[in-house]
Amino acid sequence: MTKILKNKVIIISDFINPTIPELMSMHGARLVVNFDSKYSEDISYQNEFTNKIKSLGGEVYITKENISDFNCAKNIIDFAIDKFGSIDVVFCTKDFKQTKTLEAIKESDWDSVYSENLKSTFNIVRHAAPLLRKQKFGRIITLSSSSGLIGASAMSSYAATKSGIVGFTKVIAKDLGKYGVTSNTICYDDQNESKAISVKNKLKTNENIASFATYLASDYSAPVNGQVFQIEDGKISHFSLPRRNKTFLSSSVSQTFDIDEIDSNIESVLMNKNKKLPRYKNLSGKVAVVTGASGGIGKEIAKLLADEGASIVVADIGSSLDGSSQNSEPALKIVEEINELGGNAVASLNTVTNMIGAKNIIDDAISNFGKLDILVAAAGILRDRMIFNMSEQEWDDVLSVHLKGTFSVVKASLSHFIKQRFGRIITFSSVSGLYGYGGQSNYGAAKEGISGFTKSLSKELYKYGITANIISPGAKTRMTESVPNTTLSMRKGDFKIPADILSNHPSQVPPMIAWLASDASSNVTGKIFHCVGNRISLMKNPTEYRSISKKTKWFPEEIAGIFPETIGMDLINPAPISE
Q1: Engineered SS bond to 560: which of 11, 40, 220, 575, CB 3.0-4.6 Å?
Q2: Would strands 243-249 and 535-540 be described as parallel, antiparallel, or unpaired?
Q3: Do 403 and 164 touch, CB atoms closer than 8 A?
Q4: CA geometry: angle 25, 30, 34, nearest 5 deg
Q5: Looking at residue 196, what is its pLDDT?
Q6: Cα separation, 353 vs 543, whole angstroms
Q7: pLDDT above 50 (res 263)
Q8: How is the beta sheet containing 528-532 ordered, strand by strand?
């Protein structure tokens, strides 16, 4: 056996099965394995595990840290440095699953799943990143699932965190790639766990996860960065990133979509369907809550929905861009503006970051207008920082507003939607989550997490007449203007674009949202629409791009041999090593 991990120091953040550490130790790795959940109190099993690794010629130390705690996660990194002098690979394996409908999920349930899966991944990576960057070598491997890629009914909290891990990994691949540190995600097919699959096939999946993780941890995987792979039985698949599959350009001279133009074309152009839905009328008689409505895109959404006849709750605490201060004046000003133009609006100056504040927002809709039909969750802040410099507070603040805030207001709205058998949920993702933008690991994780959460809602709630769709907006706003020019220049491609052809004003995003909020969109759910200026694109979900299969289990050396000419062919590293 070729020991492709010889002398590499590998941290496994949580023991999930013995297969992974056993195979890595057989290939020469020196291990620190953290027991945070399974067998964490079973000293006898831990001793048995340690002896097994030693019998294989390996070296292993056990830690028992709660990795959902920022400082405890640091203890693992410090322990590895103390024992081995360095670290080379971090495999973030925490996989805390919860199967509950959104109706049944409590705030504490959400917080637990988030902390165990997504926050723990950040905690470990954040403490490892400066060390890997300094030594200009490292491998970061994260664990997600098919629920995170495509959503799953009764698993919205789990799917949100697993999707968030994918978004997080895509960003850190760009933060760290130029330093010789690669970051990739392995997914397993948890959709099949409820089906009658054999124990033998499940064992093979675990063995092949171990083999592929061993390959990713090795020097052979150096060009592989920012990618998503799925392991199912003997099949290893490379998944494509979300892409703008079909795009529709406005015919309007003003470059802003007319809602009727969307209504007439969206199904045939973007979805290859003949027009079957009812024609768009307006939103007269509807009641909408719009979070983050005091500025930017949120403000424009509130104004257009009001202009289309909806009564509006302008929900915004008026926070500064980074969330550090509050000012109620902008929200009150938007309400005044809507009402002066003949609309009907009230302000709700409550936070979305907890269930109390979210319930108050929804209660404001019910007490003022008697019902709720539409929820647009657009609240957000930015705290950009490279992963190796990001503080825990910067992470927590962004995830609290974006991801927890979206969950909170959706959860608070749900009973009203179910009771009336009608509801429109419109959430906000971002290209930072879908593609990954450097310096935004918190924002990217939150936005991709929202995508996974919303896809799950679409599957769970459609039977109640509730649709859930995702907007990936593009517009020149206070948030986008805060991004440094040096960062923007890194995101540009090689194409030169003629002036005055494309536009990106915040007022050009809301027409699609108005259509999604209406009766006309009743059969459209679980979709991601990228809306920027005078174009609307339907985003394609991650799909299998290439695969390799084997009837028996894979060996890491086999993967290293076959990868370059198969699923690795033409693979693009989004952040190659800087010379």
Answers
A1: 220
A2: antiparallel
A3: yes
A4: 90
A5: 46
A6: 33
A7: yes
A8: 243-249, 535-540, 528-532, 466-474, 423-428, 374-377, 287-291, 311-315, 345-348
Which candidate, 155, 162, 163, places its Cα nearest to that of 101? 155
Instruction: Tell me the pLDDT of the chain averaged across its residues.
Output: 92
Q: What would the CATH number be for the domain defined by 9-239+543-565? A: 3.40.50.720
Q: Are strands 138-145 and 243-249 parallel, antiparallel or unpaired?
A: unpaired
CATH hierarchy code of domain 284-478+506-532: 3.40.50.720
pTM of the shown model: 0.94
Residue that is written with structure tokens 């919303």 in the block:
454
| 283 alpha carbon, distance to own chain's centre | 31
- Residue from 196, 172, 417 nearest 288 by CA: 417
Alpha-carbon gap, residue 15 to 343, rounded angstroms: 57
Q: For the chain, which residues make up each domain, given as ranges?
A: 9-239+543-565, 284-478+506-532
d(CA 235, CA 251): 45
* Burial (Cβ within 10 Å: 0-12, 13-18, ≥19) of residue 519: middle
Same fold, 9-239+543-565 and 284-478+506-532: yes
Q: Please list the active-site residues.
A: 443
